[in-house]
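Bug #77: duplicate submission created two jobs. Keeping one. Sequence:
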Amino acid sequence: MYSIKFDTNIIKGDELIDIDLLNPHEKIIKRKQTKLTKFIKSFDEYYIISSILCCHKSHVIIDGHHRYFALKELGFKKVPVTKIDYSSDLISTGPNGGGIPKDEIINKGVSNELFEPKSTQHLIYCSRSKAWYPVILLSTMFKIDTNN
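Kept job's structure:
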């Protein structure tokens, strides 16, 4: 169940995938990633985490860079991902249609040339309220084992 109403065809699947298949497109704030890494590590058996959102075609990360880098540092081989149709007009890269063009974001991700932290903002259109909301609302919750 989602807190917003959107075209569910945008979701192309959710699963655990090999972390090396993902392509970040922006750098992270190291302090924030360090705190998240320590927090996840503090759980004895498991942790519930929001999935990383990625383009279903390119595996470029759309939302979840800090989660990605924290899980990578912790040695996770498989990470929770929700694959989305990033080409959809119902996903925006900024308020009022502004922001960095999607093709430029994809190109950065596949080239390993990263934007500065928090350079991009992704939004999803809610058909009920006729408003744009943070794309993280498309994430699903996953249980990850922390004792490995």
